[in-house]
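Cross-posting from the modeling subforum.

Setting up a comparison between two proteins and wanted a second pair of eyes on the formatting. Protein 1 (sequence, then structure tokens):
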Amino acid sequence: MSLNDNLSNTLTMKKAIIIIFFAVISVSVSGQNKKFNNAFVVSLSGDTISGQIQMKNSVSLCQGIKFKKNDTDSTITFNPFDISSFCFTDKKKSYKSLKFKNNSKELIPGFGELLFDDEIKLYKFYQRSYEVNGIKYNNDIAYVIETDSMNYNLLQTRSVKEKKEGVFYENQKFENSKSFNLVVKEYLGMLSVVFKDCPEISESIYKVNFNDQEIIEILEKYLKCKRENNN
């Protein structure tokens, strides 16, 4: 065998090793993406079943989960209202089957992440963006306040509207531009309904922005106000 042949064979082997190396990395990354964490689900009848749930992004977890009892068991898909709730034991994150309002004011099922747990509870739902009648809606978050007697949906709708020359919106004139974002803070009116028995915090309500921290803070103010009034 000539020197050129040996060199050619060596290069071919090196290429094969490189291909195998990246293939192993690809499989490893794919396996990581399918990582399962210790968790449990609660059935509709109230039974707790321990096992593992596949870790996914927040949007996907709100739509449904993949569950298995152990490493060798087959995977089961649970959609909202197939089960009552689920919880990651390592991360101490829990989700409950609820109904959330979307931009079309429709109640849709989903798993809500528990953010605040007291006399009243706050759940967060991550919603995929979608389009209706040519308008793209990006309301990727919704909240539900759960009380003993009722659930309240908190919604902020955001949509893209076409701008036309001379159009006024909130005392602003839009010109020479194709679109603008329209934000409707519907959640403020709902918070006023929830907190109607504590008028002391009414002014604070309309300063609340649509995020976890500020909604939790106003819930804490409300509970403090309510407890002081009951003493």
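Protein 2 (same layout):
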Amino acid sequence: MNMKVEIDLNNLLFDEDYGPETLQESVQRQVIESVKKQVLSTSVHKVQEEIDRQIANTVAQAIKDRLPELFDDILNAEYTPVTNYGAKSEPTSFRKQLVKTIQDQMVYKKVSYVSERNAFTAAVDSIVESQVSEIKKDFAKQVQTDVAKQAFEEALKILRDKLKV
């Protein structure tokens, strides 16, 4: 039994966009499209990287140039504080509030609980505690030395009296 197979290359090599083409034309077209896609993809990627780099540099420079001015604007901008009940206070600025808060915190307040201490009180208490601890150690050492010296002198005196020397 013999079988005959026929292949119509026109059907295989027919492209909807380009119509019938030869094997050489088909391969050539596909190679060109592949190279075109690679070049386009690489180019787009490189262009996107360069755009991203330029944007980052521009934004960084703008921030660097504008940040000090923005800080001053933020610190000096006036606003009117409002309580939870809607009562308005005197107009103030962030800078004034910051100075007031720091001044309020620079007061030593003796309180019952450690959690109630402000930063200044905690710092002073910590320094005083460490200094007192050092003084206690030095005092204890000095007392021990003096007591030992007095005990030795007293023992020596008793020995002299007993030996009558």
